[in-house]
Amino acid sequence: MTIVRDHGSFRDPSGYVAHYGDRIFRILREDAFSSFEWLKSSGFLAELVGKKWLVATEVASDPAVQDISRHVLEHEAISFISYPYEWPFELLKRAALFHLDLHLLALESNFTLIDASAYNVQFIGTRPIFIDPLSLVCYREGEFWLGQRQFCDQFLNPLLLTSLVKIPFNAWYRGSLEGIASEDLARALRPKHKLSWRIWSEVLIPVWLQRSARSASSCSCVSIPSASVTRPSVCPSSMSVWISADASGERLMSATKERSIFNTSTGNCLRYASEE
Fold it and tell me: Which residues pair with 122 in a beta bridge?
């Protein structure tokens, strides 16, 4: 039996995934391995695995992979792999809320997520689980949420497309694997949707700023900060309270924090307190 490299992990900045029979390994660069060791030593890795929020991951000791590299992890295998463009609306929404809750929990332990890829979430039954522990890195005070734009493209915008415009996101998502860009979503929104301050703050204003940045960069060398970057300790929470209810404004998922309902019929954001 030979170790087979997974060709789908060619974009992995930390290393690459390999299969050995039905076992899943991840061969890492030295800096990525050091980051994993820090996560493990903090106790946060064990906490997430214990909550069943993260696939069990250990340093591999199998001689077959140790011959390749000293920096190898073994992930618990998931029997069925699915992709965001295959999920129904409710599963994408559940994955989005799970991703935000994971990020908020990480911030409490002084960690943050360096990206917001929907492909890092899988399902065991209907329960979401995170599969990439290397996306968790140490949080530095004042650091911005660098994955916000990716979260909007891969989670928020597909949900808004279906919830507001009544267009199923699946076919569009399948044809654009990085998600639905805010600029594309803005073209699909109707005038009544643009009366909502949440649509302005999360879709229209970032689109306008991105266009302004592109225009300015073509005229000068002045660097303009990305419009999609905000403080992670604030934005994941406000994003979570917004998308935690369906189009009718009914509560679908329990929460331990104050959440809010985005009522698509009125464009209003209503707050309420909830308990587990």
Answer: 129
Could you tell me the sign of the dihedral formed by the alpha carbons of 152, 92, 179, 186, in that order? Answer: negative
* pLDDT band (50, 70, 90) for residue 80: very high
- Rounded to 5 degrees, φ, ψ at 45 are -60, -50
Phi, psi torsion values for 79, nearest 5 degrees: -70, -30
DSSP string, 17-37: EEEETTEEEEEE-HHHHHHHH
H or E stretch including 127?
A: strand 127-130
User: What is the sign, positive or negative, of the torsion defined by CA atoms of 2, 40, 152, 276?
Assistant: positive
pLDDT (mean) for 55-69: 82
* Residue 219 pLDDT grade (very low, low, confident, very high; cuts 50, 70, 90): low
The strands making up 23-28's β-sheet, listed across from edge to edge, are 4-5, 15-20, 23-28, 72-75, 57-59
Q: Are the beta carbons of 86 and 170 closer than 8 angstroms?
A: yes
Q: Give the residue extent of every domain in the chain.
A: 4-75, 85-272
